[in-house]
Amino acid sequence: MKAWVVRELGPHRDVLRLEDVPAPSMQAGAARIRVEATALNFLDLLVCQGQYQEKPPLPFTPGVEVSGIVEDIAEDVAQGAPFHMGDRVIALPALPAGGLAEQVVVPLAQVHKVPRGASPAEAAAMFITYHTAYYALHRLARLQPGEVLLVHAGAGGVGSAAIQLGKAAGARVIATAGGPEKVETCRQLGADEAIDYRTGDFVEAVKAFTQGRGADVIFDPVGGDVFDQSRKCIAFEGRLLVIGFASGRIPQAPMNHALVKNYSLVGVHWGLFHRLYPEAVREMHDALLRLYEAGQIRPLVRHIYPFEEAIQAMDALGGRQSVGKVIVAAP
Predict the structure, then answer these.
(1) Domain Enoyl reductase (ER), which positions (predicted)?
(2) Domain housing 195
């Protein structure tokens, strides 16, 4: 089968190679899935460079989120499996045998339902970003109807999910993004206010929107200066969700400021939660399926690349050129 393979660490353009490799062997408790689409995540760039916290052994194939069709199920679990041959599913392959390949073999615990009516690209984009946002907003921040939610990088994969989930929860949503096109995308997703951080001061805009009170919940996948500025517009007893550090700088927080305004700094490590509480993850997935099927959420997919152009897809992701999720279609 064909797969994109990394045999040495470095920038993705230098180390990703399209190769013919043996098909993965079946494992106990697993399903073989023919990949239809692979959703890229920022960690795919980092793992190529050896900069992600989890370092798979070389050689490896990136891609931790796919949609596809079940082609086989291990004999030990076939009888009671929740899926059957021919079913379309979402799957989370584990590195080193990632999803930028024609086939993956994935434990059934990491195989999930596809929402009715979803395209392969939407299905591939459905899991990690929406689960991260749902976990952050509902389980950690306890977002309430009528509260103000500030979402940074609102036109990105996880940011676009947070806007939609915030609106579905009854929050008033402010989003930030870079450039007029991305700002308009945030408005189309349902944001009540959208701010171009390149030309405007989001701190003053949030204060104006809330009559000086500030945002109750701040969803920050950017870090760096954005985190520093966010502390200036968080409400008393607010919750600042630390999703990631796409800016490249991990900020430092003066805890006396958190004490004075009684706000919480909440770390969001969905990956560990996903491993520790699989039943809770399935409950969240069922809730997300209902929201999708009710028309309240829909993955933002505008960039679908052919399988042979996976490097260009990663270029778009790493260069901040993309809106929503970046998808690599099956060969």
Answers:
(1) 12-328
(2) 128-271
